[in-house]
Amino acid sequence: MDSARMKRAVSRLSSEIVEENHGAQDLYIVGIRRRGVPLAERIVDKIEALEGIRPHYGIIDITLYRDDLSTVGANPIVNRTELDADIEGKVVVLVDDVLYTGRTIRAALDQLMDFGRPKKVQLAVLIDRGREHRELPIQADFIGKVVPTKQTEIIKVMLKEYDDIEAVGIFERP
């Protein structure tokens, strides 16, 4: 997926989020660190351009909520979770780059619930690797593109904020 296709996918995700929720009134867009954050920022900007209302925006870091924390190392790097408003009663849209096993989303949901009780939680992802890889019963509400992959492959979403390039690639696992 090249830069132009990524941009169209983000535009489509943004439009679908607005349509599904009948506007942007109660939306709270939350990016999952790391690559979900710039995608969430782009969605917020696009929704503001479409609706004239800037949705609430936040960032969550799931490091301490991972179920594989013991394999990460003795001193994991933990970044701040930043929510600009209360999530109580809001429609929270979690944003991530790739949906694979569902474990990242489970961790994000656990952390999100520690901040309150949203009216509804939805999931937007740029890439969904397909349900055959799921380890948990999690699915996205908004999908940029479904890219079926083999277990031996990884998907890398490259964003200008981190990689100086905009692309999605499939690579063999090292």
Mean pLDDT: 92
Query: What is the name of the CATH topology?
Result: Rossmann fold
Count of DSSP strands: 8
Q: Order of strands side by side in the largest beta sheet?
A: 3-2-1-4-5-6
Order of helices and strands: HEHEHEEHEEEHE
Instruction: Estimate the helix proportion, in percent.
Output: 25-40%
Architecture per CATH nomenclature, i.e. the level-2 architecture = 3-Layer(aba) Sandwich
Percent of residues in beta strands? 25-35%
Number of helices: 5
Q: Using the coordinates above, name the CATH class.
A: Alpha Beta
Describe the main β-sheet briefly. Answer: 6 strands, mixed
Number of domains: 1
> What structural class is derived from the secondary structure elements?
alpha/beta
Low-confidence stretches are none
Which of globular, elongated, flat, extended, rod-shaped describes the shape? globular
Structure report:
The protein is an alpha/beta fold. The chain has one domain: Rossmann fold (3-Layer(aba) Sandwich). Helix content is 30%, strand content 28%. It has helices at residues 3-20, 36-51, 69-72, 103-113, 160-163; strands at 27-32, 56-60, 82-83, 91-99, 120-128, 142-146, 153-158, 167-172. The strands form two sheets. It has a six-stranded mixed β-sheet, with helices on both faces. A two-stranded antiparallel sheet has the order 7-8. Strand 4 (91-99), helix 4 (103-113) and strand 5 (120-128) form a beta-alpha-beta unit. Helix 1 crosses helix 2. The longest helix has 18 residues, at 3-20. It is globular and about 40 Å long.
